[in-house]
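User: Second chain of the day. Same drill as before.
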Amino acid sequence: MLFRKTALRAAAPVAVLALALTACGGGDDKKAEDKPKGDSANSQAKPKEPSALAAGESTTGKVKEGDATVTYEVAAQKIDVGTEAETKKLVSDPKRAKGLVAATAHVKYTHKGGAPLTDTPDAPDTTEIYADGTRGGLLIGAAEDAPGCEDKLDLEGWKKGESHVLCETYLIPAGAKSLEVHWAEKDDADPVIWKFAAK
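Assistant: Same format as last time:
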């Protein structure tokens, strides 16, 4: 555990782009002729999109924390979006951040039930930011230094009744109009979504 903490803290001064940045448009690679035509296309039921929450609204979820299951109340409070100039200072290779800005999601977690944590919390690990429908690229180490954000490495012993604001920072296209925070109880679960208008 000491190695893990030391490695994460060492990464903090210069954030690391953890997810490969793909084309922001993100289209379907299948050719048009492969798609259903006529009535067959219309007859297929479209999956129902989950309803989105507004800023500050909360949901409740259970997260496996070590050997225990902890119930959290989770509320995405806001997304802070930086400038291109600020973002270039956050990344190790400014050329890869061209046309992108850093967006930091502030999410409040309240421990509602279960044992106190014996390790750093896993609850924020599934937090993601989407811009205009496309997931951004995660910046490791950037959120801990953002104003109003706590460092999850300092939260061992987190117990029932305590609340903490934990953040995740993603690179998103500059000028994005619609922003979303996605959070799920675990990696393969359907996410809860909060919608924000870009400022």
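DSSP finds three helices and ten strands in the chain.

User: Great, on to the next one.
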